[in-house]
Amino acid sequence: MEFDRQRRVILQALGCSVGSAMLAGIARGTEGAQPREIALGEQTLYVLSDGNLSLPISRLFESEAQSTEAMQLFKQSGLSTEVFLPPLNITLLKSDNRLVLFDVGSGGQFMDTAGMLPGAFDTVGIDPIDVTDVVFTHAHPDHCWGLLDDFDDLLCPDATYHMHGVEYDHWLSEDTLNNADEGSLGMVAGARNRLPLIEEQLNRFNWGDEILPGIEAIDSKGHTPGHSAFAIHSAGESVMVLGDALIHPVLSFQRPQWPWATDHHPDAAIATRKRLLDRLSADRMKMIGYHLPASGYGTVEQKNGEYRYVAV
Questions:
Q1: What is the pLDDT of residues 257-306, one digit of tens each?
Q2: Which residues contact 25 (CB under 8 A, 6 or more apart)?
């Protein structure tokens, strides 16, 4: 849309980034991790930062025994035992004729430490208006609330949007709304307010589909009912975009059998973690984890029956 592009150019000329919090009076940070550029065959991947979340460690565990063991693992790994500060790593795939964005971040209404994706676009000199496709792993707030910019317009107005049909239907279901507890009601309402805005531009896919040339949709249900990972293939090389299938650099790898309080279907999520860890380690495939450190870019190593995240 030419009007949207002109508006952004004017704002940038005035010294404001496209995603400037000043435009909406939102008091949040404006600097995340520096973008990372990764060559993938004949294409380029960028990992853009949307900032980070801040979650009490106690919210992650289902039992006191898990909590005690986790604290020991954290101390051994040099991690905080008080708060979990997961980064928000958003993947952008650039080819000759497509710009494919995997998830859209948090926007300005979730956490003050998040919502920095528009500024990250500025840093790499790419306008979100030019994004041709937006591919969703799932519709939790830190993955889909960034659909709208500070003017409540679509951040990527001309894109085709791709989401698993089960995921889309779950968030718009009356049963999901009626059964939401107090803690998740805002999450459901946020998805219901945003997802209908892309319905006319939506491609509903199934697991196993090649949703775009060289992009394979992978069953990773459990964290949400239609959660999807994606294997990107180019010139004999592959990278898997994990979303939240593997969320923590220690627990998701060393204790994949543990249930997480943030998973909609814990048993399915456990099965997904084990299956993906097996595939990633056996194939030696690189991956990008939405909440993993070092831009989430790394590999999985297996030794003596235990997995380990290795940043690249």
A1: 999 888 999 999 999 999 999 999 999 999 999 999 999 999 999 988 89
A2: none
| CA-based torsion, 111, 28, 154, 206: positive or negative | negative
pLDDT, tens digit, 9 for 90 and up, residues 26-64: 334 445 689 999 999 989 999 999 999 988 877 777 677
Identify which of 137, 163, 162, 159 has the alpha carbon closest to the alpha carbon of residue 149: 159
Out of 11-20, 114-123, 257-266, pick the least confident.
11-20
**Residue-number span of the structural domain to which 223 is assigned:** 2-311
Between CA 48 and CA 284 the distance in angstroms is: 24
Chain position carrying tokens 């430490």: 113
- Counting the structural domains of the chain, the total is 1
Whether residue 237 has pLDDT greater than 70: yes
Dihedral pair phi/psi, residue 165, rounded to 5°: -60, -40
- In 31-85, at which residue ranges do the beta strands (DSSP E only) sit? 36-40, 43-52, 55-56, 83-84
- Taking the CB of residue 312, how many other CB atoms lie within 10 A of it? 11
pLDDT of residue 57: 77
Residue 41: CATH number of its domain: 3.60.15.10
Query: 186 has which bridge partners?
Result: none
Q: pTM of the full predicted structure?
A: 0.89
Distance, CA of 298 to CA of 106 (rounded, Å): 23
Provide the token pair at 21: 């919090």
Q: pLDDT, tens digit, for every residue of 152-193? A: 999 999 999 999 999 999 999 999 999 999 889 999 999 999
